[in-house]
């Protein structure tokens, strides 16, 4: 049974066994993983400042940051190593646009995949009515494929910049006391990036799923079914040659008989029966 007949069963979960429905479920799950690993991230790094005056030292300066990675709003205090004075510093960079764009695409993809799966299962007749449902589904799938590629690429670039901006060695360059050679600054620990790295992987996996599903959605449209009715195209016209029965051309002998000769186009021959008639016979 082809996919069209199987999809026609309304209110059945058999559609989930077909590539069209099964990939939609995977898209729904992978979208959850994408926005959960990115949108739910919180990170921390710690640096130490060991002053010549030990009373001013701070050996564990914690710096916390999280989604949407507006690092220029993340502040921390560090000792100046001048008595008990401290300075307030901020991290550098704002990567919220790429992060929020990625999460937004993931949320909308999650909602659309869920809605499409429900339609496949319970509203198949409405989906296939006037071929409007498959066409809309096809266009939306193409758009989401492109948006997943763009958002994942942008987020991957932003993540690399976030890693640089939150590197403990880079943060130490912001601290005034660390510029004095008499003070010792170091890194206690850096952020853990496994969650954000996973979000990038899920972003590109979503692109592969949505791009691969374009073909299966296209098969449900009238464009594909119309082309399938005429797989060989229009019948070819014959080249204007006609098969004619051979036309026999006769030749006459002098006895008045008729003899059939070859086909039209061959040189006709006139055969004489016997020798020439003598003049005496004509008299």
Structure description:
With 283 residues, the protein is α+β, with helices and mostly antiparallel strands. It is built from nine helices and seven strands; from the N terminus they run ααββββααααβααββα. β3 (75-79) and β4 (86-90) form a beta hairpin. The longest helix has 34 residues, at 132-165. Residues 6-10 and 232-283 have low confidence and may be disordered.
What is the beta-strand fraction? 5-15%
DSSP summary, beta strand count: 7
| Mean pLDDT across all amino acids | 80
Report the sheet with the most strands, covering strand number, pairing sense and barrel closure. Answer: 3 strands, antiparallel
Write down the overall geometry. rod-shaped
The largest sheet has its strands arranged as 2-1-5
Q: What is the percent of helical residues?
A: 40-55%
Low-confidence stretches: 6-10, 232-283
Distance between the termini: 94 Å
Given helix and strand content, the structural type is alpha+beta
The topology string of helices and strands comes to HHEEEEHHHHEHHEEH
Measured on Cα atoms, how large is the radius of gyration? 42 Å
Tally of helical segments = 9
Notable traits:
alpha+beta, three-stranded antiparallel β-sheet, rod-shaped, 9 helices, disordered C terminus, 283 residues
Protein topology:
Blueprint: H1 3-7, H2 19-39, E1 42-50, E2 58-66, E3 75-79, E4 86-90, H3 96-122, H4 124-128, H5 132-165, H6 168-172, E5 184-189, H7 194-218, H8 222-228, E6 250-252, E7 258-260, H9 279-282
Antiparallel strand pairs: 1-2, 1-5, 3-4, 6-7
Helix pairs in contact: 2-3, 2-7, 3-5, 5-7
């Amino acid at each position: 049974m082809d996919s069209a007949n199987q999809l026609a069963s309304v209110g059945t979960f058999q559609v989930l066994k077909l590539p069209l429905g099964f990939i939609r479920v995977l898209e729904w799950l992978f979208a959850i993983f994408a926005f959960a690993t990115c949108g739910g991230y919180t990170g921390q790094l710690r640096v130490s400042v060991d002053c010549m005056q030990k009373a001013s030292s701070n050996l564990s300066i914690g710096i916390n940051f999280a989604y949407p990675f507006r690092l220029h709003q993340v502040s921390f205090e560090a000792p100046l190593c001048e008595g008990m004075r401290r300075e307030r510093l901020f991290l550098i960079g704002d990567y919220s646009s790429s992060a929020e764009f990625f999460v937004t695409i993931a949320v909308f993809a999650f909602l659309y995949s869920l809605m499409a799966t429900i339609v496949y299962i319970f509203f198949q007749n409405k989906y296939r009515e006037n071929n409007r449902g498959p066409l809309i589904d096809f266009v939306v799938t193409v758009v989401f494929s492109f948006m997943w590629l763009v958002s994942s690429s942008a987020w991957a670039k932003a993540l690399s910049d976030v890693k640089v901006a939150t590197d403990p060695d880079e943060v130490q360059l912001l601290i005034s006391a660390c510029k004095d050679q008499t003070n010792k600054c170091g890194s206690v620990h850096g952020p853990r990036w496994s969650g954000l790295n996973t979000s990038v992987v899920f972003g590109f996996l979503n692109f592969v799923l949505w791009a691969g599903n374009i073909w299966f959605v296209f098969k449900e449209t009238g464009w594909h079914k119309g082309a399938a009715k005429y797989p060989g195209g229009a019948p070819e016209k014959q080249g204007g040659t006609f098969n004619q029965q051979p036309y026999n051309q006769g030749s006459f002998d002098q006895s008045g008989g008729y003899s059939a000769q070859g086909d039209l186009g061959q040189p006709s021959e006139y055969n004489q029966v016997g020798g020439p008639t003598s003049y005496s016979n004509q008299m």
